[in-house]
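chain below, 305 aa
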Amino acid sequence: MKTGSIFFGSFFIVLGGLFLVKNFGVEPTSIDNLTKLWPLILIALGVSYLIGNEVIARVLAAVSGVLGGVIVWTILQQFTPSKISLFTSSPASADSIANVQSLVALYDGKTPRARCKLEAGVGEFILKDTTSHLLKVDAKSSFGIYELRQVREGDTEEVEIEMQDAEVTLGQKMTNTFNLALNPNPIWNIQTDIGAAKVDFDLSAFQVQHINIESGAASVKLKIGSRCDSVRVDLSTAASTVKLLVPKDSGCQITSEDDFSSKINASGFTKYEKSVLRTKGFEEAPKKIYIVLESGLSNLNIERY
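prediction:
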């Protein structure tokens, strides 16, 4: 059995078992700082790939899967998405302590390029709407507030959005929903640095030339458009599920740091060289999408629309 199968098998067994125990009214002990140990998963899996002893490699994969399951359960025990209640809680009490914000970056139409950098922790992050401003944020968070900074650098509007004063109380039901709207006119460069999160970005209405997603354990869905001739997508995630929607009229190339093609479900792609997959006619396509994977722990599903 492959170490990847052992990791994900252990991960889902532990995660499902903890939810099952929770449903029967038993409260497993939650360790507030346990989520900080997630890099141990990378270390254990890295060692399991390097050592020659298959038995030890399988044990390390199982241990890292168990740790991953416990960490994700610990996060989900505290975080409740805005429309999905994982545990019994009082929506009224959650709303009463949430900070509701509306932030705007101004746009005069004179700069052809824009860059957005988002730094946050646990939460649900959605991008699908347009705005006449440069960008607009509607957020609700029970454990911090967002700060927006805007500056013009040459022909580019630079916007940084960062969560401030983030405080999490053990056992607190957390809410952090972040809705982002962008102006469709500038050429965008988007960078995110977030923790365990749900990300749902529909970029089809925007001229996004580069998007970089860095996250921990996450569920990521990206819909890429074809308004730019060349689009680069960088994904650096750990123990995540990633779904990409790419237009059929664009050629697409997937490159990974290692040969992780077994974790990639991409219909219509063929292997070009080690760690590189391409759609048919990629070199001749007038529009191209370059996807770069920087983690071997994610399952990537690609659909063409």
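The two ends are 35 Å apart (CA to CA). Confidence is low (pLDDT under 50) at residues 80-95.
thats it, cya
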